[in-house]
Amino acid sequence: MAQFTRLEVAQTMKDTGMIPLFFNSDIELSKNVLKACYDGGARLMEFTARGDFAHEVFGALTKYAIAELPGMIMGVGSVTDGAAASLYMALGANFVVTPVLREDIAIACNRKKVLWSPGCGTLTEIARAEELGCEIVKLFPGDIYGPQFVKGVKGPQPWTSIMPTGGVAPTKENLKGWFDAGVTCVGMGSKLISKEIIANKDYTKLEQDVRTALDIVKSVRQ
Asked: Pick from 43, 4, 52: which is nearest to 20 by CA?
């Protein structure tokens, strides 16, 4: 069961402006990554459930966050159907992110008042997601659409909240482009939690990189 309401999750997304994305099958390594992100100031984590037994890792991470990382909001990504969404909500997911718009996921999440963020790529998909109760739409893949797409959507639909994933980098130029276009927050994966950091288990660098990225987000929003 979720520890945070969907309104609390949406507000934290808006306040912090960034969600780290990560998957690894090693539970202890994943705990260290999660703690480094938390210590760096992140208060959300999207666990991209892309591997076998990913739900077991997610369950362990959620228990760890509840016990050791107060205020850390655990969510799950790469969810492809309502059954998977229900499984992860039973394991404590506070938000569910999907690569595509699926109404069965919307129904499952809305039933338990859990925030869900579907991957959309057209204005029609965005409008349908909002009709189904979506608070924050995921723009995916972000590098294909770019900030100009966001700006184009926000013109006729200023109420739409958008979170691009893919094509987001922890640089001032990149983040300024997205936030100037009007995004609510960004999702950042391998450009933040890099293969090198994981290979070297350099959690100190990860903590600093997360802190730096959040500082950049704060500066470009002023």
From this structure: 43
